[in-house]
Amino acid sequence: MASMSSLPLLYLPLLLLLPQLSHSAPIPQPKNLAHQKPQPWNTYIVHANHLAKPPHFATLGHWYTSMVDSHSPRAAVTVDSSRILYTYDTVMHGFAVQITGDEARRLSGAVGVTGVYEDRLLHLQTTRSPGFLGLDPGFGAWRDTNLGNGVIIGFVDSGIWPESPSFNDHGLGPVRSSWRGKCVGAENFDANLCNNKLVGIKTFDKLVPSPRDVSGHGTHVASTAAGSEVRDTGILMFARGTARGVGPKARIAMYKIVVCTDSDDWKIEIVPQVGAAGLILVDNSSWSPDGTIFSSAFTLPENRAPTVASFSSRGPSPVVPELLKPDVIAPGVNILAAWPGSASLANPRNSSYQLDAGTSIACPQVAGVAALIKEKHGTWTPAMMRSKLMTTAGTLDNTDREIPDSAVVDRVRGGATAATPFATGAGPVRPQLALDPDLVYDASSREYIDFLCALNYTTEQLRRFAPDLATCARELPGGPAGLNYPSFVVVFDVRTLTRTVTKVSEGAEKYKVTVAAPEHVNVTVTQATLEFKEQYEKRS
């Protein structure tokens, strides 16, 4: 058995940088509102175990209605017995309902209910910059993947401005026949605005029933990840150049859910309707996402890049401290991307392109790189793609020194101190290296269920998103740290952990493990040399 049998060793971190995931609990619980002032109805999402439906109810809908009525005051039932807004039956089972906090608390204890979550307002930020990632049309990752052509990236955001030049379909043929999405016409939106670039658009915004973007966030994010090439553009006379996304020929499907109200219950409805595997929400509502790279307290003597922005999310994860968070970092300060073209509060300059920055900025960058990997290696699993993003990430800046962290000032020598792995994760993504096949850390759906079981998820909780695998039948060796993940963290402890690598390149190859251990840390690796004879062979 190996203490660690993977290459490269130490923190080999992971794919999608969703900063706030390191700050959220795995199973949110309904809020106890007993000590707060009485509140009117709010929208709650109720997860239910559909197999627990009593046989005397003809449908799940009848059961849900009875469930709400039986846990509500008589007056509420008399006034309105149909407060259920949506029911879900594809990715999850349950419903969205308007109830009070006290009703939510009572409903959470009902037989068959596996979770009750208050719908909350979430705040957005954004990003872009493929040039900094080393992407060039003439060689490397873009040339090898035909700029991501053949991959469709789905966005769940504030809508889109389809007239933007960044969504032109020049040089793109029809979308593949297996694509099942479509463009749905609505108020102030003609479905004919879709093309071979925009292959799916639909709104779930009941207050403004149009997929047209008015805040700018969805347009900015979509063009950051997959915007078509637009030459000689910028903000008025500034930042002129060629704008393009990380996957310029990837197709776009936009589903609008984001509006500026406190009860956006339809943001959950989209997940089952579009057939998605799940919905990831980045919550910046508890603190300000805005910031600057350098504060007035100091300046850097050189143009060092990258630098971890002061507002960037940091680890360790309070939920899974055994795995390094964040996974990777990506550009996210003053990023140029498309913007709604009409003059509004979101666009006072009436410019088709804007600069933006914030904590959700890395998502479209990494999504674009993932699209390039998917185009190059269509059979790879998500875990394989995540592994390559992490194990090929950089560890040094453009001066071959440790990446600086602008949030931590060296008061003695001035300037930023070196960022720790809890600020950089594996480091900045490097698209070209991420495409090269060699060794990956793969993990099956069953292994992820075992990982959740090690985090004490119950069968009822697992059934919400994996009904076919919702059993904790075996123990994950090593606990949560035993997941075959491209990173691990050992805190003041002696641990023996196993990692398994899969060779995805062709032919026979031999790998030798090298260790760069932190100060005062001893790392011993058994099976220091790994030999492979054929593709997809595994070694631990």
Automatic annotation (TrEMBL):
Cross-referenced InterPro entries: Peptidase_S8/S53_dom (IPR000209), Peptidase_S8/S53_dom_sf (IPR036852), Peptidase_S8_His-AS (IPR022398), Peptidase_S8_Ser-AS (IPR023828), Peptidase_S8_subtilisin-rel (IPR015500), S8pro/Inhibitor_I9 (IPR010259), S8pro/Inhibitor_I9_sf (IPR037045), SBT (IPR045051)
Write one Pfam family the protein is assigned to: Peptidase_S8
Q: Which UniProt keywords apply?
A: Hydrolase, Protease, Serine protease, Signal
Q: Which residues form the active site?
A: D157 (charge relay system), H217 (charge relay system), S360 (charge relay system)
A Gene Ontology BP annotation from the UniProt entry: proteolysis
User: Is Signal there in the keyword field?
Assistant: yes
Subtilisin-like protease fibronectin type-III domain segment(s)? 483-540
Matching Gene3D superfamilies? 2.60.40.2310, 3.50.30.30, Peptidase S8 propeptide/proteinase inhibitor I9, Peptidase S8/S53 domain
Q: Which domain of life is it from?
A: Eukaryota
Determine if Phosphoprotein is one of this entry's keywords. Answer: no
All copies of the Inhibitor I9 domain together span: 43-125
Cleavable signal peptide: 1-24
Q: Which residues form the Peptidase S8/S53 domain?
A: 148-267, 304-399
PROSITE patterns under this entry? SUBTILASE, SUBTILASE_HIS, SUBTILASE_SER
Q: Name one GO molecular function term.
A: serine-type endopeptidase activity
**What family is reported?**
Belongs to the peptidase S8 family.
Name of this protein? Subtilisin-like protease SBT1.8
State the organism of origin: Dichanthelium oligosanthes
